[in-house]
Write a structure and sequence with these properties.
By secondary structure, the protein is α+β, with helices and mostly antiparallel strands. 17% of the residues lie in helices and 25% in strands. The chain is built from eight helices and 15 strands. The strands form four sheets. The chain has a six-stranded mixed beta sheet with strand order 2-1-13-6-7-10, covered by helices on one side. A five-stranded mixed beta sheet has the order 4-15-14-11-12, with no helix packed on it. Strands 3-9 form a two-stranded parallel ribbon. Strand 11 and strand 12 form a beta hairpin.
C-alpha cells in the first residue's frame, strides 16, 4: 500500500509472500527501497486473499485473554501453560471471503484475534530473541464449530477448528517496525452491526514474543508460520445458544492500524 492508501501490485517482483520470500533478506531490502507509486495499481474489484501464502503451520493459542477466561469461569494466570492447537492450513482464506456454513455445521462461533506472522527460522528462542523473529501483524479469526469441538467423544480441537474458510486472515500484513505497541491495540468484532467483541490486546496474558518463545520449545518456527494469539471475551458461546452464526449473518472484525475484515455467512455452494 502506498502513502495514499492505494494498493499496488508486486507480482512483477515476486510470486507470493511465502516461506521463501518472507525469509529472503535481500529481496525484502529491495522491496523496502522501491517507490510503490511506480508499481501497477490493484483494481478495486480484485479479490484479496490471505496476505501470506500459508503452506506452513497455523498455530492457535487458547485461553490467552484474562477477561475471556474470567467470563468462561477459567482460572488462568501468567504462570499457566498456554493452550496450543493447530488449524488445518486449508482453513485459511481471504479477509472478505464468505464464512461457509456446511452440511455438518451446528454451532458456528466467531473469534477475532491479533495474529503474528513469523519472518525468521528459529527454535529454543528466548523472549528477547523471539521479538526479532516477528515479521508482522494482521487481523485473524479462529472460527469454531462448537458442537464438533466440545460435544463429541473426540475432545481435541482439530475438527471443530479446521472447516474450510475458518481462518480468514488480513486484509493487511503490517510489518513489525510499523506496529509500535502490539500489546496495546484496540479491536472490535460486530455481527449484523451489533458489537460482540470489544477489547484491547493488553488483555492478553502472554505477549507475542512470549508465545513465540514458548512454541519454539516444541518445534521449529519458519517464515510464513501464522500464530493466532487467542480469543477475547464475547464469542457466541458466551452470549448464549441463540447467537450462533447462521446463513445471512454479516461479521466484521477490525484491529486499529491493521485493517478490517468483512464476511457474510453463506451456505456452502452445492448444498441444498
Amino acid at each position: 500500500m502506498d502513502g495514499s492508501g492505494v494498493l499496488r501490485d508486486l507480482s512483477g517482483i515476486l510470486s507470493d509472500w511465502d516461506r521463501s520470500t518472507l525469509g529472503d533478506a535481500v529481496l525484502l531490502e529491495r522491496v523496502s527501497r522501491m517507490d510503490p507509486r511506480k508499481l501497477p495499481q490493484v483494481p478495486d474489484c480484485e479479490r484479496l486473499g490471505s496476505p501470506v501464502s500459508v503452506t506452513g503451520k497455523v498455530i492457535c493459542i487458547g485461553w490467552n485473554s484474562r477477561l475471556h477466561a474470567m467470563q468462561m469461569g477459567h482460572k488462568i494466570t501468567e504462570e499457566s501453560e498456554p493452550v496450543v492447537f493447530l488449524k488445518a492450513n486449508s482453513s485459511v482464506c481471504g479477509p472478505n471471503d464468505p464464512i461457509l456454513y456446511n452440511r455438518y455445521t451446528k454451532k458456528l462461533d466467531w473469534e477475532g484475534e491479533l495474529t503474528v506472522v513469523i519472518g525468521k527460522k528459529g527454535k529454543y528462542l528466548s523472549a528477547e530473541q523471539a521479538a526479532s523473529h516477528i515479521f508482522g501483524y494482521m487481523c485473524g479469526q479462529d472460527l469454531s464449530e462448537r458442537y464438533w469441538q466440545f460435544e463429541t467423544d473426540d475432545k481435541q480441537y482439530t475438527k471443530g477448528k479446521s472447516f474450510d474458510n475458518f481462518a480468514p486472515l488480513g486484509p493487511f500484513l503490517v510489518t513489525s517496525d510499523e506496529v509500535d505497541q502490539p500489546c496495546h491495540l484496540h479491536a472490535v468484532l460486530t455481527v449484523n452491526g451489533a458489537v460482540r467483541q470489544d477489547f484491547n490486546t493488553s488483555d492478553y496474558i502472554h505477549s507475542p514474543a512470549g508465545i513465540i518463545s514458548y512454541l519454539s520449545k516444541f518445534f521449529t518456527l519458519y517464515p510464513g508460520d501464522v500464530i493466532l494469539l487467542g480469543s477475547p471475551p464475547g464469542n457466541a458461546k458466551s452470549w448464549g445458544d441463540d447467537f450462533w452464526l447462521k446463513p445471512g449473518d454479516k461479521v466484521e472484525f477490525e484491529i486499529s492500524g491493521l485493517g478490517k475484515q468483512c464476511q457474510e455467512v453463506i451456505r456452502e455452494p452445492g448444498i441444498d
